[in-house]
Design brief:
alpha+beta; three-stranded antiparallel beta sheet; elongated
């Protein structure tokens, strides 16, 4: 069972008591309640929602019928409303936090840790800088090793060349 009522999602943390008609299970009434260990303690009854039986959408185009497109459109519309609601809520929360941080400069460090960038990231920026520095250090060490190796190869090549060209036995009387 599900509903397209945005207010029901705001109260998902509540425990619910379900009322239903055994002859018509296409919809149920839920009322908030108190429970302990999954068992009903008492009905509070300050909030009530009617939930519809969840519509099972066929996966294959061949299996779809006339009402399927309408049900799909209901889901798309609900998701669009939900996205707008989430964006609005985020904007309101950002405004409250910005006022708080402006009035309390001591929270500046906390601000850096709590409020991410537009992509929801904040630590990745620090990691990127750190990784860039580490990459440069590694590249510099690797270049230095290559130069040392190249110089030692050149010295070895010079020594071998001289050994092949000059016969020292010719100059010594042994």
């Amino acid at each position: 069972y599900d509903t397209f009522d945005l207010n029901f999602r705001k109260h998902m943390h509540e425990d619910w008591m379900v009322f239903y008609d055994a002859d018509d299970l296409s919809q149920v009434l839920v009322s908030n309640a108190k429970s302990r260990d999954g068992r009903l303690v008492e009905e509070i009854g300050t909030m009530e929602f009617i939930l519809q039986e969840k519509y099972i959408q066929p996966m294959a185009l061949y299996d779809q019928e006339k009402g399927d497109a309408q049900q799909r459109q209901l889901v798309y519309d609900y998701n669009s409303r939900m996205n707008n609601e989430i964006i609005l809520r985020g904007t309101q929360q950002r405004e409250v936090l910005e006022d708080l941080f402006e009035n309390h400069p001591r929270l500046d460090t906390l601000k850096k840790l709590m409020i991410p960038d537009s992509l929801g990231q904040h630590k990745d920026q620090k990691s990127a800088e750190r990784l860039e520095k580490a990459t440069k250090r590694i590249a510099a060490k690797q270049e230095k090793r290559e130069k040392v190796l190249e110089e030692s190869n050149w010295q070895e090549a010079q020594t071998n060349y001289l050994k092949e060209k000059v016969n020292l036995n010719k100059y010594t009387n042994l």
